[in-house]
């Protein structure tokens, strides 16, 4: 069954395929970006933890002076 969209003949199977491919592409791209941000955050945490192990004399106390 073919429909008409803006004067052009459409194919429902191709419409569904296009929607699924665009969803797949968007999900893959979103996962890549989110994963890169997550990995970078964990890398920074590991760097801070390693520097605390390497320099035990360093304190994490904060003094507020007025």
List the helices and strands and how they pair.
Elements: E1 3-5, E2 8-10, H1 12-54
Tell me about this structure.
The protein has 66 residues and is mainly α. It has one domain (3-54). It has one helix and two strands; from the N terminus they run E-E-H. A hairpin with a 2-residue loop joins strand 1 (3-5) and strand 2. The radius of gyration is 26 Å and the shape is rod-shaped. The N and C termini lie far apart (77 Å). The relative contact order is 0.06.
Q: What is the radius of gyration computed over CA atoms, rounded to a whole number of angstroms?
A: 26 Å
* Largest sheet: spatial strand order: 1-2
What ranges have pLDDT less than 50 throughout 5 or more consecutive residues? none
Q: What is the number of beta strands? A: 2
Please count the helical segments.
1
Portion in beta strands: 5-15%
- Characterize the overall form: rod-shaped
* Average pLDDT number: 82
Helix-and-strand structural type: mainly alpha
Counted up, domains total 1
SSE arrangement, N to C? EEH
- Report how far apart the termini are: 77 Å
Main sheet properties: 2 strands, antiparallel
Estimate the helix proportion, in percent.
55-70%
Features:
about 70 residues, mainly alpha, two-stranded antiparallel ribbon, 1 helix, 2 strands, about 65% helix, rod-shaped
Quick structural overview:
The protein is mainly alpha-helical and 66 residues long.
């Amino acid at each position: 069954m073919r429909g008409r969209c803006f004067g052009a003949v459409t194919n429902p199977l191709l419409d569904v395929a296009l929607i699924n491919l665009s969803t797949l592409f968007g999900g893959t791209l979103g996962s890549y970006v989110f994963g890169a941000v997550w990995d970078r955050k964990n890398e920074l945490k590991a760097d801070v933890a390693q520097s605390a192990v390497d320099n035990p004399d360093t304190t994490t106390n904060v003094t507020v002076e007025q």
